[in-house]
């Protein structure tokens, strides 16, 4: 009897050991996110969901952002900068190949940068490359980029998802079959459901620890809660139901990471559309907004109030919330002075994220209180990009600008909110050419103050980034220095 019991116990121990071994060997992950990319070309659209899946995982640039926001070497192992700050000589890593097996070299860098800045470029951040005067291939591992004027942001700009390196041979199919140089390669896309990636066995750098990755798209917050709670997904990045976070925090199966983002969430105004072309009208709208009510009502307390288009965690941030404090009586007074004592009607076009849909209802109520009626239209991302971002067919919209250090968009007259005054263009030109840290800081503060004083948009809050994940997962980014779900260093606890 003892022998049988011992034998039975030994079998149980061996089974337990085997199960532990299996857990240690886990090398796949299912990551959920709310928004599905409209296509898979990070150099051809403004949709942040593209970078959320592909940045660093599939595509890489000459430089890359680290989880702390630092700019680090990417495909370029090193670079030198001329004394006048105009010429950058990049030395590329050797033996880098694209996922189709072809070599990545200086010709591909030239092609990518020239494509991004071409007259017919579809790059959403084409302005980042406008300062490039020439790209010259010296040899397969060396490329020289000459700028028209010195730009202290250039290495930073090259780390954006819009600046990744692509091959001319595969760019025709990039929207459905992305071929990059990253630690993972594209496997499959079941539209409306998931995108599958697999480990790149020939990766030039530190190999990924995961063998397979599945990005699952769950747009409904209730369904998101159910999927995580049932452990149908291993992680949900940008979890869209912040009201459920305390429940996950109390459950030892999960870890909850609430990080910062570069996402300035704004009530954007079409500055060329009457009566929004009147600064008093824009100021009236800004004072009609109770930011905390939106943070509490739409984000359940997660978010930091902002008064300008700049991240509060940036050392050059200026707190300008006082210049647009909640004051509906002042709003009514300003509207009367602008010639609209009875208010007016305009459109409020909302993209899919929860902050926009939930926040839009609250803002519509707040504007109604001062006499402004809004016609709310809920749009999918493709519609929003077509109507609002490209078509400028809107009065108001709500969106979070997740690109890092992007105050330069206010220097573009053709950008969707259509500001870009000569004064701001001159100021931003001074910022980009200034290399002295103290002088640059002063100019950045002046830029924040200028757009706040012009009430270009109504500034709401800095978007928080909650992630709910299996407690055993290691290496997830907590913060979002750029919109990315970088899984190259993610693994399961052994």
Please characterize this protein's 3D structure.
With 494 residues, the chain is of the alpha+beta class. It has 13 helices and 19 strands. The protein has helices at 2-24, 48-54, 106-117, 154-157, 221-229, 245-249, 279-288, 291-299, 328-337, 354-368, 381-390, 422-433, 437-453; strands spanning 28-33, 63-65, 71-73, 76-81, 87-92, 132-139, 142-147, 184-190, 194-199, 212-217, 235-237, 254-269, 304-305, 344-350, 372-378, 396-401, 458-470, 473-474, 491-492. The longest helix is centred in the first third of the chain and has 23 residues, at 2-24. It is globular, with a radius of gyration of 24 Å.
Structural class of the helices, strands and pairings?
alpha+beta
Q: Report the portion of residues in β strands.
A: 15-25%
Alpha-carbon Rg, integer: 24 Å
Query: What is the residue-averaged pLDDT?
Result: 92
Uncertain stretches: 1-23
Number of strands: 19
Could you write a compact summary of the structure shown?
This protein is of the alpha+beta class and 494 residues long. It has helices spanning 2-24, 48-54, 106-117, 154-157, 221-229, 245-249, 279-288, 291-299, 328-337, 354-368, 381-390, 422-433, 437-453, and strands at 28-33, 63-65, 71-73, 76-81, 87-92, 132-139, 142-147, 184-190, 194-199, 212-217, 235-237, 254-269, 304-305, 344-350, 372-378, 396-401, 458-470, 473-474, 491-492.
